[in-house]
Write a structure and sequence with these properties.
heterodimer, A: about 280 residues, alpha/beta, Rossmann fold, 6-stranded mixed β-sheet, 4-stranded antiparallel β-sheet, 9 helices, about 35% helix, globular, disordered N terminus, B: about 325 residues, mainly alpha, MetI-like fold, 2 domains, binds adenosine-5'-diphosphate, binds magnesium ion
Chain lengths: ~280, ~325
């Protein structure tokens, strides 16, 4: 099983640390509005939203499914061009997906025909690095996620949790300035998810990279984030921006502490009242 | 007669090669290839070992059904022998049908006859040229159609119009179109293989999960790299099915085409035997065609196996 938490500090390469200067990974979202379809079929997925995500910040976007979390994240990744407004990373407007913004999906996003090693080496490879470099980067990140033994396996031979670790390693192998994660642990069982959260936090603390993490799980959002953006549905908009001041490194035991509980209550109340409002709207 | 439209539907691909994720199918698929051969010598050795051990497994597991199949075949031959010996004429007329013994004797004689091999060689050469050309054109067209709406709009109408036309129906036009008989025959063979390959490639490309394309884009892959590393491998299982079906169809198209030929080819051999009232040779020709068709389809499947090894490893 994949339940061991890898000791990370000794494995992180110096190159990765070098890439994590505290001044890169600055995401600015200005008056972004995203509408799918036209005319009568128009569906406003994200209403005018503005955000400033600081370099190195760990931000969770929290909201019920269908509220536009993935859509907002896709506009940062460059899969979607906003109907109006601008997304920029480090001052450069986002026009298309690129290796400076690593993406981790919910599941089934590894290339099934490539071994774990080749999946991780994909970014460096398409960037034109030599085979030697690719394999040394792959080894570094395989070790980082504790999967060196599985280097020559295919994704289908790994558990869901291991596959997600490969997904994270693959995104990081490009040394991106931003890591975008769309419910990456949503398909995992509760125990594995907890392990993965701790794992991710230690990776993040070593890299100091900006993370935008989408989830519908309140506990997950509070446990991970510096800052939780609460989103509500129809039309999708950010209704709250909460600072999480829990000390780091985070410990699962904190989930029963007073500060955690208070934050959780705020989030749940907001989500409940929003759901009620949506429910009443539908029944009107 | 052969029909270019037959067996070219994508729906039939599923019959030929059911979803690899079905565990029962995978088991059957693995028979004889417990370890799909890789490209290195070590892998080949492993595959050979896999083959022998799974042949043994096959015998152990399916011994009864193999015996039954052999008994059934033997019974068919005995019936054929008796029906010809007693000149049975009950709905089917066996009066002019040669007996299995005569067919085998004819086959045996031909094995020592150089011209017989020329017939086979000429047919195989036509298949090779027609099939390889069809594969190149078919895969290219299928990929283009799958990735570009414009290409789809330009090419698809031709497929819809031409696909249902049987191979034999092409013969007169093929003769008019091409300078030599040889070219006409190869053209007809090519057409036969083309449609299943195009349609299966298209199907495979369309099935490529969008999330993989997105992942590749975010990892910095260019369009060409996405094509090479994502779309092509994702479509490969479907392309492989198309190539196998295409090989089968190209054989029965070839047979139609060889009606044109005045000299060589196993199809010509069969027709000629009929004209010369050499009845055992008709059946020799038929069996050779069947055997070669099966063998070449099998060869295509084996050839594709290393490329699809990743599928077999799925749990
Ligand atoms: N490609 C698309 N075309 C049309 N509508 C879309 C598309 N993607 C998402 N939507 C709509 O936008 C809304 C938000 O979807 P999404 O961002 O996937 O929500 P979430 O990730 O929060 O579950 C939904 O109503 C969904 O139907
Ligand atoms: Mg989503």
């Amino acid at each position: 099983m994949n339940t061991q938490v890898v000791s990370l500090t000794e494995h992180i390469p110096h190159r990765a640390l070098a890439a994590s200067k505290k001044d890169i990974g600055h995401i600015v979202i200005e008056d972004v509005e995203i509408v799918f379809g036209k005319g009568a079929n128009a569906n406003q997925a994200v209403t005018k939203t503005s955000l400033d995500i600081k370099p190195g910040e760990f931000v969770c976007i929290l909201g019920p499914s269908g509220c536009g979390k993935s859509t907002l994240l896709s506009s940062i990744a460059g899969y979607i061009t906003p109907t109006s407004g601008v997304v920029s990373v480090d001052g450069k407007p986002v026009k298309a997906p690129g290796p400076d913004r690593g993406m981790v999906f919910q599941q089934y996003s590894l290339f099934p025909w490539k071994t774990i090693r080749d999946n991780i080496a994909f970014g460096p490879k398409v960037a034109g690095r030599s085979n030697v470099e690719c394999s040394s980067i792959a080894n570094t990140f395989l070790e980082m996620v504790g999967l060196s033994r599985f280097a020559d396996k295919y994704p289908s031979e790994l558990s869901g949790g291991m596959q997600q670790r490969v997904g994270i390693a693959r995104a990081l192998a490009n040394y991106p300035s931003v890591l975008l994660m769309d419910e990456p642990f949503g398909a995992l069982d509760a125990q594995t998810r907890l392990m993965m959260q701790e794992n991710l936090l230690s990776i993040w603390s070593e890299f100091g990279i900006t993370v935008v993490f989408v989830t519908h799980d309140v506990d997950e959002a509070i446990f991970l984030a510096d800052r939780v953006l609460v989103m509500s549905a129809s039309p999708g908009s950010i209704i709250d921006d909460l600072q999480v001041t829990l000390p780091r490194p985070r410990d699962p035991a904190m989930a029963t502490g007073a500060e955690f509980m208070a934050l959780k209550k705020i989030c749940l109340d907001q989500i409940r009242s929003e759901s009620l409002r949506a429910f009443e709207q539908q029944n009107r | 007669m052969s029909n270019l439209g037959q067996a070219t539907d994508v729906a039939e691909v599923r019959d030929a090669e059911p979803e690899p994720s079905t565990p029962t199918q995978r088991k059957e698929d693995l028979v004889g290839f417990a370890d799909a051969p890789g490209l290195s010598g070590k892998d080949v050795l492993k595959a050979v070992r896999g083959c022998t051990s799974s042949t043994y497994d096959l015998l152990k597991k399916h011994g009864v059904s193999i015996v039954l199949s052999l008994v059934s075949l033997a019974a068919g031959i005995v019936f054929w022998q008796l029906a010809t010996a007693y000149k049975v004429d009950f709905y089917i007329n066996f009066e002019n049908i040669p007996s299995p013994g005569k067919v085998f004797a004819a086959f045996w004689t031909h094995l020592g006859d150089g011209e017989f091999y020329i017939h086979i060689g000429v047919s195989m050469q036509r298949i090779l040229i027609g099939y390889v050309t069809a594969s190149v054109i078919g895969i290219a067209a299928g990929v283009l159609m799958g990735r570009s709406k414009i290409a789809w709009s330009l090419i698809y109408p031709y497929i819809e119009v031409l696909r249902p036309i049987p191979a034999v129906a092409w013969i007169p036009l093929a003769i008019l179109m091409w300078p030599t008989e040889e070219a006409s025959i190869i053209y007809i063979t090519l057409l036969g293989a083309l449609f299943p390959i195009v349609l299966n490639t298209l199907h495979g490309v369309e099935q490529t999960p969008e999330v993989l394309v997105r992942a590749a884009k975010s990892l910095g892959a260019s369009r060409l790299q996405i094509f090479w590393h994502v779309i092509l491998p994702a479509a490969l299982p479907s392309i492989a099915a198309g190539l196998a079906i295409g090989m089968g169809v190209s054989w029965f198209s070839l047979l139609a085409g060889e009606i044109i030929s005045g000299q060589y080819g196993i199809g010509y051999f069969t027709w000629n035997a009929y004209s010369l009232i050499n009845y055992p040779d008709i059946i020799v020709g038929m069996l050779v065609i069947g055997g070669l068709g099966t063998l070449s389809t099998y060869a295509v499947k084996i050839g594709m196996k290393p490329l699809l090894a990743w599928q077999k490893r799925a749990r």
